[in-house]
Amino acid sequence: MRGVGLLVTMAILAGPAHADDTISLDGAKAILVPGQRSTCADVECLIGEAYAADPKARDLALALFRATGDVAGVGPTELMDGGFRGKIKLVPQLPTGVYRKHLSWVADAMTAIDAWFTALFPDDQVTPSYRWRALKFRFVRSINKRTPSAYAFSWTIEYNVLGSLLTSATGVEETLFHELFHTNDEDHRDWSARTLQTDYDAIVAKCGTKARCLAPFAPNSTKVRATGTYYAFQPDNGNSVHEYAAELAVRYFKEQSEMLRVKKLAQPAFKCGPPENARAWKAFVEEFFGGRDLVPAC
C-alpha cells in the first residue's frame, strides 16, 4: 500500500476477505451516510443523498457506481500508526467542491482498469483470479501531513485527498492498481509473504536501503522522499514484501498496457533482470492472471 503497510498486515492476519461482487445496502450506508438515518431502498438513492450539495460530484459518483459497482463515500476519523511516517490523523472528506477532481480521477482510473482487464482477457480461455470491481472507496483528508496516499483492506480503498501521490490522473491510476493488489493479496491468504519472502529478504540483506544496489530488483520507480530508497524496500512499513508485491502488480499493469498499445516495451522487461525478478514475475502472473503475459520471453 502506498500508505501504511502495517494496516495491510493487520487486515491479512485478521483473515481473508469474501469476494462478493456487489456492495450491500448496509455497506453503502456505512460510507455514504455514516451515523445518519436514511429511507433509501437502494444505493443510487444513497449516493443522491450524500452528494446532494454538489450535483456534479453526485453525477460522477452515480456514473462510477453504474459502470463498475464501486461506491465512493467517506472513511472514519482515526489516528493511525504510519510506521516510518509517524502518527497520522485522518478525517472524513467527501470528494465534493475543491476535492471533486479526486472523484473524477478515481472514476476515470477504475473505468480504465476495467477496460484493461477486458482487453487483456478478451475470451474465457484464461481467467484472472482477481477482483477489480464493486469496491468501497472511503475518502479522507490527513491533518498536517500528505501521507498516506491510500491504503486497502477487504475490498475497500481508503483515499487521502491530500496524498502526495494523488496529484494527477496517472498517479491516481497507478496508486489504485497498487492498492487493488493489496486487497487481492489478502484474499489469496497473504500470497506475497508466503511466496516471495525468501527472495525478498535476501535482496534486503544484500542491499539494505541503498538505491543503487536495489535498482535492478525494484519493480517500479516510486521512492520515499525522506530516505531516497525505493518504496518497495522501505523499512518500518509493516512487512514490506507486501509493498514489493504491489509494486510488482503496478509493473505488470504498465508492461501489459504497453504491449496492448504498441506491441513492444521501450525498456527491458522486469522478468529479464536478475533471477529473483524472473521467479517473482512467474509466480505472480500464474497466481493472479492465469499465466497471461504479453511480453515475449527473454
Topology diagram in text:
Elements: H1 5-13, H2 25-32, H3 43-50, H4 55-68, E1 71-74, E2 78-81, E3 87-92, H5 100-120, E4 136-142, E5 150-153, E6 156-160, H6 169-187, H7 191-207, H8 211-214, H9 241-262, H10 275-289
Parallel strand pairs: 1-4, 4-6
Antiparallel strand pairs: 2-3, 3-4, 5-6
Task: List its salient traits.
single chain, 298 residues, alpha/beta, 2 domains, 46% helix, 10% strand, globular, disordered N terminus
Rg on CA atoms, Å: 19 Å
| Regions with little confidence, pLDDT below 50 for 5+ residues | 1-19
Molecular shape: globular
Strand content: 5-15%
**Count of beta strands:** 6
Percent of residues in helical segments? 40-55%
Number of helices: 10
**What separation lies between the terminal Cα atoms?**
29 Å
Biggest sheet descriptor: 6 strands, mixed
SSE run:
HHHHEEEHEEEHHHHH
Helix-and-strand structural type:
alpha/beta
Overall residue-averaged pLDDT value: 91
Task: Give the domain tally.
Answer: 2
Short description:
This protein has 298 residues and is an alpha/beta fold.
Task: Give your account of this protein's structure.
- The protein is α/β, with parallel strands linked by helices.
- Strands 1, 2, 3, 4, 5 and 6 form a six-stranded mixed sheet that branches.
- The chain starts with a helix and ends in a 9-residue tail after the last helix.
- The protein has two domains: 5-187, no CATH class; 191-289, no CATH class.
- Helix 3 runs antiparallel to helix 4 and helix 4 packs parallel to helix 5 (100-120).
- A hairpin with a 5-residue loop joins strand 2 and strand 3.
- The protein has helices spanning 5-13, 25-32, 43-50, 55-68, 100-120, 169-187, 191-207, 211-214, 241-262, 275-289, and strands spanning 71-74, 78-81, 87-92, 136-142, 150-153, 156-160.
